[in-house]
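Work Package 4 report. The design task specified in the project plan requires that, given a folded chain encoded as structure tokens, an amino acid be chosen for each position. We show below one input record used in the internal validation round.
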């Protein structure tokens, strides 16, 4: 960021609204109305060439007629006039501009051309732009509601220590309205729009400069600049601040463009999960959890590296307790029943607990003294990593009976105490407001509550510099620069060169097939015979592979049959070589994939291999490259590979060798010419016998470097 930009985004002393309307109900009139309504203390300069006043403020016919250079300008004009206004704002040296207009890359080629024009206009200047397609920027502490979002028509604008960065403009209003209903405030909210200039990461770095902000909430539709997002996440982690994200797009859109099995399974959503894991960004799966969970991540409750995932569920309704316990169980959280210490403390006041995992106070009646003793006793026990209270009907009608004693217990505990959350079974906004005012995470649904607790207990270990270090250590061979894909034989040669063990094999030209018996004498039957063609990435479907050839004299006959099948499958396939390799009898097959994902970078995938890999869809994805230890973690996360760990007495596979192969394969990240690659299958041999890559493919960029 330039020096002139810092501070002008969120704390300007003067703002200009370009295209401001006198009608406060219109989109172009709302920013002036909201700035006045919420008490912005800086200068407000409406720009409207047709009026001398706008909403009782002096208006200016042009930017050049303003009494000074504004710190921040909000352009609410249509697309082409907005670009013209931006040109003038740049010439005036305005440090920060927010653009409302749409009509850019989201509209097709013409819009993309406008986007290029906007970037060219900003190049080399000191002006930074939020948007276009941004509904504005809000600082709740100063009343700077520089926005066209209708949700800000209502007062008050509650200040807080949580910030919001959203790619959806309408969603910032959702945060404010839902927060207002329970007394929850925000420090600031930014609608980033198309991120043509300022990215989520750059805006986040600006927000982090406020020492009072403890948590930043991200509402994302896509990842547009992973590099600045990483810088933002790294700075947040160093400051002990939490990034919570809700990311749209869990579908598999775009997977059909991939040519490999893993490419098809490696959805953008899985790529985002891998990115967030690396950056220490905690991703919620339930939207409400995004803002309800924030008290669990205050600076005083730093993420723990403990593996303890035992949670105490105390309830005044067995059904409500079961609701949240069920959701916690689905997320791998253990519900730990009452300890002897908890039973003893409650017995002292005449409360006897039944058997089972819940600390169920239903029969004791909803009484403040009972709830207070229960919460104090649970918080004192080291057995539990966190506490969830499920409160029944009293939460709505008599919050002082169960919710208030929870707030009192929370207020009296030490700052390092375990996380505490409350699920109110009925609609209980008064109780939720009481919890919010007390700094306790209150939830309306068991799903959001469990989502937040699971995230709070998940160890966090960002890997900010690991990928770069591993890439720098990689030694990668050169690639031919005039092809867009490698044949299987060429791919196996590449994989072998980067340290992946490959099957023993012999490559023959079609013209030499009649002499195959004499040319493959070093290979031990049974043999596998394959047609080599980059046009046949999935050989099984094309009938281009034959297993179990024991007599080398049969190779020519087998090849002739495969050629007939392949020509029917794809008549234009280029086939001029045959690959003959030793047939491997593994304990199990794995699949390793590599792919470059736009805006995120290189990804490595591991899963159960074979022709049914896509049906199983049992894969894990990480950003590449990975070290051997991380590869071991990947292996542990693939359910199907537990077979090779000696499941139910089965022979153990060489999983250490598999981890080494995964780490070696991930070094393709250091070679920018490889877009996508795959080994399927990787044959996992018995423990101590290693693994071998049996089949592979690689897709290249048509223009790439010769080597690293």
């Amino acid at each position: 960021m330039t020096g002139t930009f810092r501070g002008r985004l969120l704390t300007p002393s003067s703002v200009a609204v370009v295209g401001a309307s006198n009608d406060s109900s219109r989109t172009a009139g709302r920013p002036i109305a909201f700035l006045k309504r919420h008490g912005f203390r800086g200068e407000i300069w409406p720009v409207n060439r047709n009026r001398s006043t706008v909403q009782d403020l002096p208006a200016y016919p042009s930017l050049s007629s303003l009494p000074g250079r504004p710190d921040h300008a909000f352009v609410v004009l249509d697309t082409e006039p907005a670009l013209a206004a931006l040109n003038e704002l740049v010439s005036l040296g305005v440090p920060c501009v927010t653009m409302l207009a749409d009509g850019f890359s989201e509209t097709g080629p013409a819009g993309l051309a406008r986007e290029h024009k906007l970037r060219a206009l900003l190049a080399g200047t000191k002006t930074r732009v939020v948007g276009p397609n941004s509904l504005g920027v809000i600082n709740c502490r100063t009343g700077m509601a520089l926005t066209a979002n209708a949700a800000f028509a209502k007062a008050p604008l509650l200040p807080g220590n949580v910030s919001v960065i959203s790619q959806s403009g309408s969603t910032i209003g959702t945060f404010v309205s839902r927060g207002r209903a329970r007394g929850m405030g925000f420090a600031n909210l930014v609608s980033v729009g198309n991120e043509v200039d300022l990215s989520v990461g750059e805006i986040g770095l600006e927000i982090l400069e406020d020492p009072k902000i403890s948590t930043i909430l991200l509402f994302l539709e896509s990842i547009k600049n992973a590099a600045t997002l990483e810088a933002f996440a790294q700075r947040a982690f160093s400051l002990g601040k939490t990034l919570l994200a809700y990311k749209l797009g869990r579908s598999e859109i775009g997977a059909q463009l991939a040519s490999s099995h893993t490419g098809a399974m490696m959805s953008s959503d899985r790529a985002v999960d891998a990115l967030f894991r690396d950056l220490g960004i905690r991703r919620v799966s339930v939207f409400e959890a995004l803002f309800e969970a924030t008290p669990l991540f205050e600076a005083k409750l730093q993420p723990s590296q403990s593996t303890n995932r035992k949670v105490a569920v105390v309830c005044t309704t067995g059904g409500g307790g079961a609701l949240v316990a069920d959701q916690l169980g689905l997320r791998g959280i253990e519900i730990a029943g009452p300890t002897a210490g908890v039973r003893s403390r409650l017995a002292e006041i005449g409360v006897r607990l039944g058997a089972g995992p819940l600390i169920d106070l239903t029969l004791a009646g909803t009484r403040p003294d009972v709830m207070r003793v229960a919460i104090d006793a649970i918080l004192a026990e080291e057995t539990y990593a966190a506490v969830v209270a499920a409160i029944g009907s009293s939460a709505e009608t008599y919050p002082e009976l169960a919710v208030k004693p929870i707030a009192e217990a929370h207020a009296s505990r030490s700052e390092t105490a375990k996380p505490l959350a409350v699920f109110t079974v009925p609609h209980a906004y008064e109780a939720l407001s009481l919890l919010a005012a007390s700094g306790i995470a209150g939830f309306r649904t068991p799903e959001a509550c469990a989502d937040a607790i699971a995230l709070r207990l998940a160890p966090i270990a960002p890997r900010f510099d690991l990928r770069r270090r591993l890439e720098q250590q990689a030694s990668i061979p050169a690639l031919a620069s005039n092809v867009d894909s490698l044949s299987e034989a060429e791919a196996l040669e590449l994989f072998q060169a980067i340290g992946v063990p490959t099957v023993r094999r012999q490559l023959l030209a079609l013209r030499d097939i009649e002499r195959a018996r004499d040319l493959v004498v070093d290979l031990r039957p049974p043999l596998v015979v394959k047609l080599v063609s980059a046009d046949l990435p999935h050989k099984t479907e094309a009938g281009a592979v034959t297993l179990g050839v024991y007599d080398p004299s049969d190779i020519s006959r087998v090849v002739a049959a495969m050629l007939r099948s392949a020509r029917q499958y794809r008549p234009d396939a280029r086939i001029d070589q045959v690959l003959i390799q030793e047939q491997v009898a593994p304990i199990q097959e794995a699949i390793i994939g590599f792919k470059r994902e736009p805006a995120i970078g290189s990804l490595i995938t591991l899963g159960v291999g074979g022709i049914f890999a896509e049906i199983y869809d049992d894969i894990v994805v990480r950003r590449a490259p990975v070290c051997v230890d991380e590869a071991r973690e990947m292996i542990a996360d693939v359910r199907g590979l537990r077979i090779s760990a000696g499941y139910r007495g089965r022979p153990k596979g060489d999983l250490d060798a598999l981890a080494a192969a995964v780490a070696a394969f991930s070094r393709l990240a250091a070679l920018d010419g490889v877009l996508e690659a795959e080994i399927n299958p990787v044959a996992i041999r018995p423990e101590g016998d290693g693994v071998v890559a049996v089949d592979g493919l690689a897709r290249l960029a048509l223009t790439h470097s010769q080597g690293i």
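The longest strand covers residues 674-684. Validation will be extended to a larger panel in the next phase.
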